[in-house]
């Protein structure tokens, strides 16, 4: 692998959307010349694409939050905390008192176990709860963290609940992989309708999230389009995206082989999960972070 280049920000969703909206402007009679011109640069173009770009992985969300100066010893809520990985990071990196909330009793118990194993159970408390109904008092939170949750909520209700629990001037960070500029409405509906063990999902694009934030009376301090960066980082690290692509191809080519062994429900989960990772690499899904101020 070549040496990574200096960091270059991902394009914004709206800029890439214009590429797919524009279509081709080439005249039919120019096809031969267009093909000849491309043939002259194709190999060099491919080598240029082989150059690794400097990629931000999931840890960069913590760096984004650090730039907002979260108060040491402040109160944080991790909305949709899952098994508690991010709650542990918030407590250990920033010295925050963290309330993790999740609608799954299994996740709540596993998050409690993780906090205890890390020796942080005195700084991490985990409760049953949802983004639309956070079990905390009004204006009690200094830092709100919400990663990969918003598509499983009523976004306006969730943002209003975020506004309720945040103190004036408090900071929030939302990260979500959203419907991408290359995804059609039919594809988005199919993917959102697949049950992956998280409950029903919504088809949301960045503008939908921004509107929910605005309606709730929160301020967007910064928006960061990660696009495919996390997927590219995984591919360069261990080939994970390419492996998912191969798995998706096999699942689609010989579905009955896998249904017979694992059942139709597990087949559909695996297919949707593999396609999710592939779609994130090709603009059909799009990672975006929103840094908020109450």
Describe the structure concisely for a colleague.
By secondary structure, this protein is of the alpha/beta class. The protein has twelve helices and seven strands.
Explained architecture:
The chain has twelve helices and seven strands. It is α/β, with parallel strands linked by helices. The protein has a domain at 60-180 and 203-227 and 289-293: Vaccinia Virus protein VP39 (Rossmann fold, 3-Layer(aba) Sandwich), CATH 3.40.50. Strands 3-2-1-4-5-7-6 form a seven-stranded mixed sheet, with helices on both faces. The relative contact order is 0.14. The mean pLDDT is 93.
Observed structural traits:
294 residues, alpha/beta, Rossmann fold, 7-stranded mixed sheet, 19% strand
